[in-house]
């Protein structure tokens, strides 16, 4: 198998394939190895669906994109999942917000009253 020349589009597709365990929370993939380097030898092909899958699990012309990255970026379910995960991370990493200025219970009110004296 000859080593193909790596174009920017192929490089993005290979990186997406290495990070596929992050994309879908319901699927679990076997790790492709410890190395984070892109593979030197690989082949790219096209999946041709049989006629029996015309109504069940085929992509329409509108859903088909040029590269794997474009297909994943246009997928609405994946987009919702990514937005939800980003929001969760932002909430977890946001420092107290305005909660630190709110009085909570009688104890804080008493301490504020004592400070005024």
TrEMBL record:
The keyword Transmembrane does not apply. Its main location: nucleus. Residues 92-117 are annotated as: Disordered. Residues 101-117 have a biased composition (Basic residues). Residues 1-85 form the Fcf2 pre-rRNA processing C-terminal domain. GO terms for biological process: RNA processing. The keyword Nucleus applies. One of its GO terms (molecular function) is RNA binding. It is found in: Nucleus, Nucleolus. One of its GO terms (cellular component) is nucleolus. Keywords: Nucleus. This is Fcf2 pre-rRNA processing C-terminal domain-containing protein. It comes from Aegilops tauschii subsp. strangulata (Goatgrass). The lineage of its organism: Eukaryota, Viridiplantae, Streptophyta, Embryophyta, Tracheophyta.
């Amino acid at each position: 198998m000859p080593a193909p020349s790596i174009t920017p589009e192929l490089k993005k597709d290979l990186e997406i394939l290495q990070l596929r365990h992050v994309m879908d929370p319901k699927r679990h993939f076997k790790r492709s190895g410890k190395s984070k380097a892109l593979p030197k030898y690989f082949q790219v092909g096209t999946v041709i669906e049989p006629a029996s899958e015309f109504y069940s699990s085929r992509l329409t012309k509108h859903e088909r994109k040029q590269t794997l990255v474009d297909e994943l970026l246009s997928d609405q379910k994946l987009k919702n999942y990514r937005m939800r995960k980003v929001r969760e991370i932002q909430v977890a990493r946001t420092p107290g917000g305005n909660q630190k200025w709110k009085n909570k219970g009688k104890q804080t009110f008493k301490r504020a009253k004592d400070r005024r004296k």
